Amino acid sequence: MSYKIIVDSCGELTEEMKASGHFETASLQIDVAGHHIIDDETFDQKKFLKLVAESPECPKSSCPSPERYMEGYHCEEDRVYAVTLSAELSGSYNSAVLGKELYHEEYGEKDIYVFNSRSASVGETLIAMKIRECEEKGMAFEKVVETVEAYIREQDTYFVLETLDILRKNGRLTGVKAVVATVLNIKPVMGATEAGTICQLGQARGIKKALVKLVDEVVKNLKNPKEKVLAISHCNCRKRAEYVCDMLKAKAQFKDVVILDTAGISSMYAADGGVIVVV
């Protein structure tokens, strides 16, 4: 059976994934400083970060329309999966589900399933990889869905950012009560709850200590690392990502490691210098 995996653009794709023919990106869009940016292969991170730094206003994002998802489902492949960023953080999941309903009304039955990642960025990347792994093993559609949903429940997301301003101003930190003392250079270590909301796991003074604490949090919760892919995304800070990677590899063996630069939406929320770890 043929298959396609649609990942909204908060999830980064590796070059190998892009070349495989199995993956498609559903682009979100960003408005900042009077510029309307499509989060696709034309996204210029350096230019975007400069616009954000110079703009007094917070950038805003919008998710793909249901019609965009419906178009993605309307293809020659027999089975289609969509992976979206957490439904608690974006309307992308609901849009993808509505697109599925519209497709069925317009074209009839087809095997389509929408995964709520309960994560973002490389969390979505790993889920898309897991779908392909299941498909390549020849699993039945229902078994793919069951296996990947179980995988999502076991997945953990962590991140350290230079600033939480954009997350806070866009209402993505609902329920996070800790006050970060920016004057004292306190950096929070953040994570995702089982529901896909953002929580604070700890904090440290300075980015380097915060990254060490992030690694400690990952290791504390890590189970069966030899069976897992370690995924790290970073916004314009490859050396930080490699620093985190080296610390984690010194403490555990992983099945594989993926390091990616953030695309548009992830760059918007991670901001310059942000690091995201998913395992």
UniProtKB/TrEMBL annotation:
Keywords: Lipid-binding
Keyword Membrane assigned: no
GO function term, MF aspect, one: lipid binding
Pfam hit, one: DegV
Gene3D superfamilies: 3.30.1180.10, degv family protein, Dihydroxyacetone kinase, domain 1
InterPro entries documented for this protein: DegV, DegV_C, DegV_domain_contain
SUPFAM superfamilies: DAK1/DegV-like
Protein name, per record: DegV family protein
